[in-house]
Amino acid sequence: MPGFRLSLGFTIFYLTLIVLIPLSAVFLKTFTLSWEGFWNAVTSARVLASYKLTFGASLLGAFINVIFGGIVAWVLVRYEFPGKRIIDALVDLPFALPTAVAGITLTALYSANGWFGRFLEGTLGFKVAFTPVGVVVALTFIGLPFVVRTVQPVLEDAERELEEAAASLGANALQTFTRVVFPTILPSLMTGFALAFARATGEYGSVIFIAGNMPMVSEITPLFIITKLEQYDYAGATAIAVVMLVVSFIMLLTINLLQAWARGKSGK
């Protein structure tokens, strides 16, 4: 195509300026540590606990969003009801809402004297705010739009004739969904999962208020990085950031490979 070399050159230059140079700076700063210093920085008990909470809560939140975000997308595409446009607009609220505001709002709702927390903690004895459960709630909240907005256009473009053909051949509703609809939306569900997971691993503002930030219990890795920076331990902060970057990249690469496999299989 005409202009390919110019476009490719601009793309590489832009990605280098915006992505590669900042990431390279993180690695270069980490290399100022010795191997022993790096290992001690990224494997302390407190850091390992923050990894477990951050990645575990991110995976759980993304998985929850795949299920319920898929349901929301299905309802918005397949049904007409009063207030549909309002609900469709509310899906994008986590995009527009400042993360600190989201964190304060969720804390107010799920604290012991909040609307939801008063019932959950006072009646059921189930505490949400200032626990790892609160972290999952916050990460689920900010990740929902990624799943809905990736699945929704696929459902809108899906061929209804295939579902009608399956029904005419004797398939019930469950068989039609599992054998016709689900293979079609599976790649988009995996894309939404990857986006929600990636967004959740780096989330800070909406989590620090509801988490309680108790070491070894509800302290997320981004907060630990901020703590290191406040202590002027820049090499230690970048070392932890490198671990998060590598783990996130491996998981996203795995998800993308699975997504490509699912698309290839559905194409066949």
UniProtKB/TrEMBL annotation:
The chain crosses the membrane at residues 12-35, 55-77, 89-112, 124-148, 180-198, 204-226, 238-262. GO terms for cellular component: plasma membrane. It holds the Pfam family BPD_transp_1. It is a multi-pass membrane protein. The keyword Cell inner membrane does not apply. This is Sulfate transport system permease protein CysT. Coiled coil: none annotated. One of its GO terms (molecular function) is ABC-type sulfate transporter activity. It is found in: Cell membrane. Keywords: Membrane, Sulfate transport, Transmembrane, Transmembrane helix, Transport. Belongs to the binding-protein-dependent transport system permease family. CysTW subfamily. SUPFAM superfamilies: MetI-like. The complex is composed of two ATP-binding proteins (CysA), two transmembrane proteins (CysT and CysW) and a solute-binding protein (CysP). Part of the ABC transporter complex CysAWTP (TC 3.A.1.6.1) involved in sulfate/thiosulfate import. Probably responsible for the translocation of the substrate across the membrane. Residues 51-255 form the ABC transmembrane type-1 domain.
